[in-house]
């Protein structure tokens, strides 16, 4: 009887040791499963965030178009989506064109192109070679402009900042006027602005690239 008791006690001790040896591995396995679930849930949350951002951009972000009126002296801004109402817009131009922001105010939501024309002419006057008695037409130029829009859509109001391009052509008549004439064509979006992005530096950089293109075309 004593041998059986000793054997039984030994078996119990062995079982306890084996369970105590397995417990750390079980804990580790549970931790790994929890980590996998956590990573997966984070991935799902990130995908959901991207979906929400995509829905915002597709359904609520404003896109503007511009029409030229008043003998090339005014541009009227208008949302492409008829269900979106533009309330006010502020426009910032490259420093070399003008440092003064312009506003498109209701009800017309238009702004004057006269300071823009003067700024473009001043900026490119010495960069395009002209010979006396010549007439040149240089087409396909773009003026970058940052537009901050306050607008309403689907019952809510929003602010939006984006870079647009004002398309224009140059007409140079060395006999009539040493400064080039500017003919505006229209407005198209280039891209949205992220928070903290150097707005002025970006449009200045884009304008410098356009000036290089003008200089190349001006030499032809």
Give the overall form.
Answer: elongated
Can you count the helices? 3
Q: Give the helix/strand class.
A: alpha+beta
Question: What is the averaged pLDDT score?
Answer: 74
Strand order of the largest sheet: 4-3-6-7-8
Helices and strands, in N-to-C order? HEEEEEHEEEH
Give the amount of beta strand, in percent: 25-35%
Radius of gyration: 33 Å
> In this structure, how is the largest beta sheet organized?
5 strands, antiparallel
Q: What's this model, at a glance?
A:
The protein is α+β, with helices and mostly antiparallel strands.
Topology:
Layout: H1 2-59, E1 64-69, E2 74-79, E3 85-92, E4 102-104, E5 110-112, H2 114-124, E6 135-153, E7 156-173, E8 181-192, H3 199-218
Antiparallel strand pairs: 1-2, 2-5, 3-4, 3-6, 6-7, 7-8
What would your notes on this structure say?
The chain is built from 3 helices and 8 strands; from the N terminus they run H-E-E-E-E-E-H-E-E-E-H. With about 220 residues, the protein is of the alpha+beta class. The protein folds into 2 domains: about 1-60; about 60-220, no CATH class. Strand 1 (about 65-70) and strand 2 form a beta hairpin. Mean pLDDT is about 75; it is low at about 1-10 and about 30-55.
Short descriptors:
220 residues, alpha+beta, 2 domains, 5-stranded antiparallel β-sheet, 3-stranded antiparallel β-sheet, 3 helices, elongated, disordered N terminus
């Amino acid at each position: 009887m004593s041998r059986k008791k000793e054997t039984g006690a030994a078996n119990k001790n062995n079982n306890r040791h084996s369970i105590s040896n397995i417990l750390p591995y079980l804990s580790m396995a549970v931790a790994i499963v929890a980590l996998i679930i956590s990573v997966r849930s984070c991935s799902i949350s990130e995908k959901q965030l991207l979906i929400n951002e995509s829905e915002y951009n597709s359904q609520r972000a404003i896109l503007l178009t511009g029409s030229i009126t008043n003998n090339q002296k005014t541009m009227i801004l208008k949302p492409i989506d008829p269900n979106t109402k533009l309330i006010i817009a502020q426009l910032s131009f490259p420093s070399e064109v003008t440092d003064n922001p312009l506003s498109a105010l209701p009800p017309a939501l238009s702004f004057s192109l006269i300071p823009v024309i003067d700024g473009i002419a001043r900026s490119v006057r010495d960069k395009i070679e002209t010979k006396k008695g010549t007439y040149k037409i240089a087409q396909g130029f773009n003026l970058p402009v940052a537009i901050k829009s306050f607008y309403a859509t689907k019952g809510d109001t929003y602010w939006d900042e984006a870079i647009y391009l004002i398309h224009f052509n140059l007409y140079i008549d060395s006999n009539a006027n040493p400064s080039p004439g500017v003919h505006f064509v229209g407005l198209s979006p280039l891209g949205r602005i992220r928070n903290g992005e150097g707005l002025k530096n970006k449009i200045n950089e884009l304008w410098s690239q356009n000036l290089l293109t003008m200089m190349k075309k001006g030499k032809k």
